[in-house]
Design goal:
Radius of gyration: 16 Å
Strand order of the largest sheet: 1-2
Number of helices: 4
Structural class: mainly alpha
Distance between the termini: 27 Å
Length: 127
C-alpha cells in the first residue's frame, strides 16, 4: 500500500471516529447519560480509547480534544447545576465558569487518548 493510500485510510478512520463521537454526544441517553440532576455518566471515552489504540497517541489526543469540545458544547447548551465547571459560558447564581473551566474540560479528556495510546504501545513493547 502506498504512503498516500495509508494516509487516506487513516484520515477516513479518524473522521469516522469523530462522527461516531458527535452522534453519541448529540443523541440523548447515548453519549451523556444523566444519572442525577447533577451527574452525567459518559460513554464517549470509548471511541477515544479505541482510536488511541488503533491509530496512536497523537490521534488519541485529537479524539480527546473532540471529546472535550462535545463536553463544552453539551454543558453550554444543556447546563445543569455543575455546568459552570466545564464551560466558561454558563452562570449559576453568582458562580460563573472561567478559563480554568476550559482546562478542566479539555486537559483530562485529551490525556485519556494520549495515555491510552502510550500505554498500549508500552504493553506491545513488553510483550
Amino acid at each position: 500500500m502506498s504512503n498516500q493510500t495509508r494516509s487516506t485510510v487513516k484520515l477516513v478512520q479518524v473522521s469516522l471516529l469523530i462522527a461516531i463521537m458527535v452522534v453519541m454526544a448529540m443523541v440523548p441517553f447515548l453519549g451523556y447519560i444523566p444519572l442525577t440532576p447533577t451527574i452525567r455518566a459518559t460513554t464517549i471515552h470509548i471511541p477515544v480509547i479505541i482510536g488511541a489504540i488503533l491509530l496512536g497517541p497523537r490521534v488519541g489526543a485529537l479524539l480527546g480534544f473532540v471529546f472535550g469540545l462535545t463536553s463544552l458544547i453539551t454543558n453550554t447548551i444543556n447546563g445543569g447545576v455543575t455546568a459552570f465547571v466545564f464551560t466558561p459560558f454558563y452562570q449559576l447564581g453568582n458562580t460563573q465558569g472561567n478559563f480554568c473551566s476550559l482546562i478542566i474540560c479539555f486537559v483530562p479528556r485529551i490525556l485519556i487518548g494520549v495515555v491510552a495510546g502510550l500505554l498500549f504501545q508500552w504493553i506491545q513493547k513488553v510483550d
